[in-house]
C-alpha cells in the first residue's frame, strides 16, 4: 500500500491537474454541454444516474468476465496444442495471425446473422479479441525454456508429459500472465463492442443511447466506467500473478 | 562384468566423424574421469550414454543391458546447475527421483544436512551461491535411483577457490555414498585428485588415446596437490594430452587445441 502511494501519487496528481484545467477551460470558454461537459457535470451525472447505470455496468462486467474465461481457455488450448504438435504449429500459426486482421466491427454483424442476438456471438467477439495475446505469450514462454534445463530433463529420462508439466508449463507461466494482463483489458473493450450488436443492457447500449441523444456527459460516464473496469481486471490479474509466481519476485521483469 | 561398457562406438554428424571406434568400460563403484581437448566429443559421449543420441555402430551396456536410445538409465549432473527456479532446494533435489517415480523426502533432507545446506532446505535457487547450486545439483544426481552418475564438467564455471572446496566436498560425499561415477573435465589436477582411473581422449574424431590408473590412496586431501608423485603424474598426463592435441595427419578438421595451463 505504501508502495502504491509512493509510486502512484505522480500520475494521480497529473490527472487531477488535467481535470482542473479542463474545468477551467470549459467554464471560461462557455463550451455547450453537449459538446464538452465539465468534469463536475460528469461527476454529478455519475452520482445522480448511478441507480439506472448500475445494471448496465454489472451486465458488461459479467459478460466481460465470461468472455475472458472462454478466451483464456481457448488461448491456452491453442498455445499448448501448437507447442506440443509441431505440424499443427506450422500449418495453423499463420492463420491465427490472419484471424487478428479481420476487423471485429465488420465481423460482429455477421456473427449476429449467424448466431442471433444471444450470448454466443458476444462471447465469440470477446474470445476473438482475448485469445491471441495469451496464445502468443504462452508460445513465447514455451520457447524460452533454456536448453540446459531441457537437456537435463531429457538425460534424467523425463517423458513428454513430465517435460511439459514439470518444466515447460511453470517456466512459461510468467509469460502467460503478461498475456493475461493484455487480454483482461481487451475483454472489457470486447464486451462493449459486442453489446453494440444488440443487447438489452450494458455499457455498450448505454453509450449508444447517450451519444445518439447528445448526452455527452453520459458518454463520458461510459468511457470512465470502461477505464475503471479495465483497471480493475488488470489489478485482479496482477494479484493472481503475485500469488502464483513468487519465484520471480526478484527479477521484477513486469512492472 | 563392468558396470558400464562402451564398445566400438562410431558416431557421425553428417559427413563428420565425431567418435571413431571409442571403447572403454567402468567397474562398479569406480570413479572414472574422461579428459580431452575442448572440441573432442565429450558431450556427445554423454548424450549417447544418456540415450538422447544413438550411435552408428557399437554397443553401450549398463550392467549387461543394452541402453542405446534408452533415456533415464543414468543420473546426470550438467555443467550448469539447471535448478528449477520455482522449486525450493528440497523440491529440486527430489526432481531426478520424482521423474522415476520414487521420492524419498527424509533421505533428501538428511543429505542436504550432510552437504552443509541445512539452512537452505526451503530456500529457492536464486538465494544460493554458484558452489551451493552445484552441490544441490550433485545431490539431485545422487538421489536419483539410477546406479551410474555422469558429471559433465560440473565445476568448470566456478572460481579457483570454490572449485577446490567443491572437489573436496564431492570426494567426501562420494566416499559416504559410493556410486559409479563417470566424470568429464578439462582440468588434469581435478582428474588426478578425484578419480581412480583417467581416460584421455583425442580430438575429433575421438578415440581413447591413453588410460591411467591413478595410484593415490583414499581418502585423499588437498596436500596431495603438492605431492611429488602427484606432480609427476600431472606431467605424464599433460604430455599424453599434448601428443593428442598436436597430432598432424593432414586432416583439415583436426586442429591443435591449446590445453588450459594449470
Could you walk me through the main structural features you see in this protein, from its secondary elements to its overall organization?
The complex is a heterodimer of chains A (255) and B (262). Chain A has one domain (33-244): MetI-like fold (Orthogonal Bundle), CATH 1.10.3720. Chain A is 82% helix and 0% strand. Chain A has nine helices and no strands. In chain A, α2 (39-84) crosses α5, α2 (39-84) packs across α9 and α7 (160-196) runs antiparallel to α9. The longest helix of chain A has 46 residues, at 39-84. Chain A starts with a helix and ends in an 11-residue tail after the last helix. The relative contact order of chain A is 0.12. Mean pLDDT of chain A is 89; it is low at 249-255. By secondary structure, chain B is α/β, with parallel strands linked by helices. Chain B has a domain at 1-74 and 147-155 and 180-262: Rossmann fold, CATH 3.40.50.300. Helices cover 32% and strands 23% of the residues of chain B. Chain B is built from eight helices and ten strands. Chain B is globular. Chain B starts with a strand and ends in a 16-residue tail after the last helix. Residues 246-262 of chain B have low confidence and may be disordered. The interface between A and B is medium-sized, with 19 and 27 residues.
Q: What's the structural domain tally of chain A?
A: 1
CATH fold-level name of the domain at 1-74 and 147-155 and 180-262 in chain B: Rossmann fold
- Strand coverage percent of chain B: 15-25%
Tell me the span between the first and last alpha carbons of chain A: 15 Å
Number of helices of chain A: 9
Number of helices of chain B: 8
Mean pLDDT score of chain B, rounded? 85
As a percent range, the share of helical residues of chain A equals over 70%
Amount of beta strand of chain A: under 5%
The description of the largest β-sheet of chain A is: none
The CATH architecture of the domain at 1-74 and 147-155 and 180-262 in chain B comes to: 3-Layer(aba) Sandwich
By CATH reckoning, the class of the domain at 1-74 and 147-155 and 180-262 in chain B would read: Alpha Beta
What is the CATH architecture term of chain A?
A: Orthogonal Bundle
| Straight-line N-to-C gap of chain B | 36 Å
| Class from secondary-structure proportions of chain A | mainly alpha
Amino acid at each position: 500500500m505504501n508502495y502504491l502511494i509512493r509510486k502512484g501519487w505522480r500520475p494521480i496528481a497529473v490527472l487531477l491537474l488535467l481535470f482542473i484545467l479542463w474545468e477551467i477551460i470549459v467554464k471560461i470558454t462557455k463550451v455547450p454541454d453537449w459538446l464538452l461537459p465539465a468534469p463536475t457535470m460528469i461527476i454529478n451525472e455519475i452520482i445522480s444516474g448511478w441507480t439506472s447505470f448500475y445494471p448496465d455496468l454489472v451486465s458488461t462486467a459479467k459478460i466481460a468476465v465470461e468472455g475472458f474465461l472462454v478466451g483464456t481457455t481457448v488461448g491456452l488450448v491453442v498455445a499448448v496444442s501448437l507447442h506440443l504438435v509441431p505440424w499443427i504449429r506450422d500449418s495453423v500459426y499463420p492463420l491465427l495471425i490472419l484471424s487478428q486482421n479481420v476487423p471485429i466491427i465488420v465481423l460482429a454483424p455477421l456473427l449476429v446473422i449467424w448466431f442471433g442476438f444471444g450470448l454466443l456471438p458476444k462471447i465469440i467477439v470477446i474470445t476473438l479479441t482475448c485469445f491471441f495475446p495469451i496464445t502468443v505469450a504462452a508460445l513465447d514462454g514455451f520457447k524460452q525454456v533454456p536448453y540446459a534445463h531441457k537437456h537435463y530433463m531429457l538425460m534424467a529420462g523425463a517423458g513428454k508429459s513430465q517435460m511439459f508439466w514439470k518444466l515447460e508449463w511453470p517456466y512459461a507461466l510468467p509469460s502467460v500472465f503478461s498475456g493475461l494482463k493484455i487480454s483482461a483489458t481487451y475483454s472489457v473493450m470486447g464486451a462493449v463492442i459486442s453489446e453494440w450488436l444488440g443487447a438489452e443492457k450494458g455499457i455498450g447500449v448505454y453509450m449508444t443511447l447517450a451519444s445518439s441523444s447528445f448526452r455527452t456527459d453520459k458518454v463520458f460516464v461510459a468511457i470512465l466506467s470502461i477505464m475503471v473496469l479495465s483497471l480493475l481486471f488488470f489489478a485482479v490479474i496482477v494479484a493472481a500473478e503475485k500469488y502464483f509466481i513468487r519465484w520471480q519476485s526478484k527479477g521484477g521483469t513486469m512492472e | 562384468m563392468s558396470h558400464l561398457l562402451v564398445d566400438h562406438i562410431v558416431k557421425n554428424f553428417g559427413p563428420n566423424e565425431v567418435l571413431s571406434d571409442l571403447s572403454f568400460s567402468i567397474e562398479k563403484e569406480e570413479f572414472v574421469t574422461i579428459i580431452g581437448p575442448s572440441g573432442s566429443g565429450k558431450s556427445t559421449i554423454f548424450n549417447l550414454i544418456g540415450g538422447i543420441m544413438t550411435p552408428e555402430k557399437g554397443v553401450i551396456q549398463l550392467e549387461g543391458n543394452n541402453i542405446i536410445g534408452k533415456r533415464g538409465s543414468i543420473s546426470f549432473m550438467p555443467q550448469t546447475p539447471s535448478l528449477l527456479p520455482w522449486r525450493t532446494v528440497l523440491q529440486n533435489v527430489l526432481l531426478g527421483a520424482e521423474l522415476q517415480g520414487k521420492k524419498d523426502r527424509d533421505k533428501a533432507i538428511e543429505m542436504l544436512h550432510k552437504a552443509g545446506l541445512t539452512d537452505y532446505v526451503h530456500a529457492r535457487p536464486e538465494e544460493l551461491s554458484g558452489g551451493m547450486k552445484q552441490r544441490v545439483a550433485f545431490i539431485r544426481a545422487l538421489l536419483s535411483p539410477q546406479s551410474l552418475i555422469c558429471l559433465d564438467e560440473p565445476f568448470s564455471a566456478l572460481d579457483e577457490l570454490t572449485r577446490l572446496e567443491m572437489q573436496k566436498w564431492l570426494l567426501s560425499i562420494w566416499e559416504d555414498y559410493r556410486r559409479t561415477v563417470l566424470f568429464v573435465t578439462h582440468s588434469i589436477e581435478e582428474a588426478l585428485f578425484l578419480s581412480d582411473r583417467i581416460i584421455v581422449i583425442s580430438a575429433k574424431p575421438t578415440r581413447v588415446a591413453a588410460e591411467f590408473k591413478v595410484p593415490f590412496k583414499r581418502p585423499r586431501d588437498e596436500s596431495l596437490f603438492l605431492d611429488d608423485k602427484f606432480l609427476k603424474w600431472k606431467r605424464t598426463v599433460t604430455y599424453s594430452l599434448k601428443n593428442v592435441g598436436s597430432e598432424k595427419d593432414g586432416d583439415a578438421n583436426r586442429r591443435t587445441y591449446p590445453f588450459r595451463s594449470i
